[in-house]
């Protein structure tokens, strides 16, 4: 249903033509050079690395920029981290006018702090904004502002492999009225959280429940955008999977039981043809139901560059839980992992489906497959500036 | 896909069993008798009826109740209307942890103010809460608290046919952390807006665009709940329809092009068999993709009570835009309307579909069909206490 290529093209043309119209002639563009900085009077002491919990501790400052339809973007403000004060009728509380991004800043050689592929996050932020009629931004200006924000609290960016500063750009509709309509007021803000490695003691492979009774995303919906709307409805199925002993959901779609995503990450599988020995790295295609993950894109790019095409095929194609179960049964399932900003890669060891568990191979004595391990290294080396890769790592502070 | 009855039963069982577990043994239940009231020092002057704009003016007070997983519900507070102060990492800003209700209080004989079917709204509020792992409430206590809130500002409840006090109970997740998980802190609040009739000068029938490139709701999703997640993504298709000259979307679903809802309302159509002369009032069934509208339920109940079964069939069944187009072509389409709390009923005069406009009949010289007009009267008479109907109208202030 609405899953043919031509139907998608229509949907995508309709959505994107509106996006173009929306971004034309903003009244006042976002201008990083106008930033006003108010520093905290009570700077905090850095926490020790082992005290860091993802997204619970924040740096001393935050960035806010107000937007109105009438005047465009206001003066960017960097100020002490603190509560937002909003009218209870604000659009964000009632109709889901909210989007976010997640990206990390890493300590790199020469006492620099660098963002990883922030331009991709800004591109996606604008796609998310256009999809729910929030204002778009000049991503380059937001990157500059994030650099200034990081400079304020540079001493709080943790050191060490696996440690980073997680940045959370967020945009909310703030119009104080209950009509269901495009907001004429919005707030862009960025907060920052020093974080440690997702797996403190190396990888820990997870068990997934293949889920078809709940559906994460749908053609003609907004599952490819980073909107709040896509997250809250997935927490109940996750809780239910956890009660049955599985950490996360492997989201299936349609009568074909296509594999789409895992938890809040993109899903990658490795198959090996038992006759030819050739391997295939496969992930779902960007058909409008799949989040356009920056880690997903990085993995695909690096795999295409670095894996021998005589030994590997890199595929963005539909594949189903049935195909995975069949390949597992005949020894053709090699490994599987989730991919996202928080963990980079998250290896999978088991998938519950139709009352049985599909076993996903791991390397002997290890908690991941071989490609999963390599991909993690490839990306970390670029993130921490040990290796250059085009403009993927960009010093900002 | 996932559209068979048995698949829905599984989904609904899975979702509802979790809901039951979640509501068991709350640490501290919501208790209206504990309410603390702080009155405003600057009471406002009532606006004249013609100054009222839906959801833009609010009364002087609001209700707030905090919840934590650890302690349960806190002390209900009625206090002057004012901003909420929230940590920027709060779950509501990032992951769509928000739900709302909409209901109206009407001036009834004997200087009373009465709520219309508030128990149904409380029932739905709890279903919405369970679906996104927010706490459920004792609806009876919330109704009592809304009564006390209305008492504070009773003089601001407007008088006159079509005028009412719109109440907006809202619940948001307030946990200040970025992990995607069930909130352990929440805030329930209620704000109130004096409103006038949706159609100030009688009905004004609308033109709809039948929309299949964007999808409002899907099986295994949350389109039947009143969650913020269902609203923001529908504003872009609405804007696009408006650019093509249609006020709202008629939401279609699936390859069958089933008619599901209209804008943010339930959809009703009237057909008449040209051979037998028998009429059918039809609306989509509650299959998990349709909002469980209180107005929808009221219309179905009243139609079953008041329409002659020899002349009418009342159907909750799937029906498609193709069926509507075919019936229109042979003179069997009688009328159509949307149904919701804001407008009660909203007559439809035209539906754009496949490059043509389907004409929906109106009564000669009027802006609605005959049943639309009757339904509006039936419901208004109960809302304004001119007619009793079981416990549908409940005096609270």
If you had to describe this structure to a student in words, what would you say it looks like?
Two copies of one chain form a homodimer. Chain A has eight helices and 20 strands. The first copy, chain A, is of the alpha+beta class. Chain A has two domains: 26-195, Aminotransferase class 4, branched-chain amino acid transferase, N-terminal domain (D-amino Acid Aminotransferase, Chain A, domain 1), CATH 3.30.470; 206-395, Alpha-Beta Barrel (D-amino Acid Aminotransferase, Chain A, domain 2). In chain A, the strands form two sheets. In chain A, strands 1, 2, 3, 4, 6, 7, 8, 9, 10 and 20 form a ten-stranded mixed beta sheet that branches. In chain A, strands 11-12-13-14-17-18 form a six-stranded mixed β-barrel, surrounded by four helices. In chain A, helix 3 (118-131) crosses helix 4 (139-152). The interface between A and B is large, with 72 and 73 residues.
